[in-house]
Write a structure and sequence with these properties.
The strands form four sheets. Strands 2-1-3-4-5 form a five-stranded parallel sheet, sandwiched between helices. A five-stranded antiparallel sheet has the order 10-9-8-12-11, with helices on one face. It is elongated. The model has no long low-confidence stretch (mean pLDDT 86). The protein has seven helices and 15 strands. By secondary structure, it is an alpha/beta fold. Helix content is 31%, strand content 30%.
């Protein structure tokens, strides 16, 4: 059985030991080669041991976990953030498609992350994922989202998304360049991670729309026409709420 070599970087000794013990006792597919209490020591350890995966805390003195990027021209290892971050920050991990484990760490979380790493064929785009994560966490605003595609990830600005259409366990993301991207995420996933973006609204169970791209609203027909000519229905129970949103945007109804 092939094992992955890992390094743990966390300023809390107890956190390092807990994660190391859980891996040693319950996850034989991972071998912990070393542990470090800060980013500079972690960089030295990475250069020495050449790990497959680094378990990395974010909030540490002197250098935070994001600054690990600055020490490497290329990142040829997977990064898993081990964090006690807030609910909003967790959405940041989701939109950037970055691997993370919540504190207190549980074995099932380690195993689930391990499966993601094993099923991933390459690490292309890891720097961009981490830059998006850093930007989202620091600004409290989701500006880009990583969309899983068959050959990797496509990073799309949320401002360029016209609407997202449900298709069972999949979603079709319509972008303002005329493209439509089929993504292996359901509509609820997008609704959850974009809930703080006031310009995104779900008028119907099958659609999540960007209000900035509304072309026409047929009030009598409970129907919206988007800039790309897509037709979106409005649920009866959402009509008053939707018209209220239009008034807030200073659009007459």
């Amino acid at each position: 059985m092939e094992t992955l070599k890992a390094i743990i970087i966390d300023d809390e000794e107890r956190a390092r030991k807990t994660l190391s013990t859980l891996i040693r006792e319950y996850v034989p597919e991972i071998t912990v080669a070393d542990m470090a209490s800060n980013v500079p020591d972690g960089v030295l350890s990475i250069n020495k041991h050449k790990p497959d995966v680094v378990f990395l805390d974010i909030e540490m003195p002197d250098y935070n976990g994001f600054e690990l990027l600055n020490f490497f021209r290329e990142i040829d290892f997977d990064i898993v953030f081990v964090t006690a971050y807030s609910e909003y920050a967790l959405r940041a991990f989701e939109v950037s498609a970055t691997d993370y484990i919540l504190k207190p760490v549980e074995v099932d979380s380690i195993r689930a992350t391990l499966e993601k790493i094993k099923n991933r064929n390459h690490r292309h785009g890891i720097k961009q994922k981490l830059e998006i994560l850093k930007e989202t966490v620091s600004s409290d605003e989701i500006k880009k989202i990583a969309l899983p595609m068959g050959d990797g990830l496509l990073f799309v600005e949320t401002a360029k998304i016209i609407l997202i259409e449900a298709d069972g366990a999949y979603s079709s993301v319509h972008v303002n360049d005329g493209s439509t991207l089929v993504v292996s995420k359901n509509l609820k996933f997008f609704e959850d991670i974009l809930e703080n973006k006031k310009n995104f609204y779900r008028p119907h169970r099958s659609h999540l729309i960007n209000l900035n791209y509304i072309k026409k609203y047929h009030r009598g027909e409970n129907n919206i026409i988007m800039d790309n000519q897509s037709s979106v229905s409005i649920s009866r129970d959402k009509k008053n709420e939707f018209e209220g949103l239009l008034r807030d945007l200073h659009l007459s109804v």
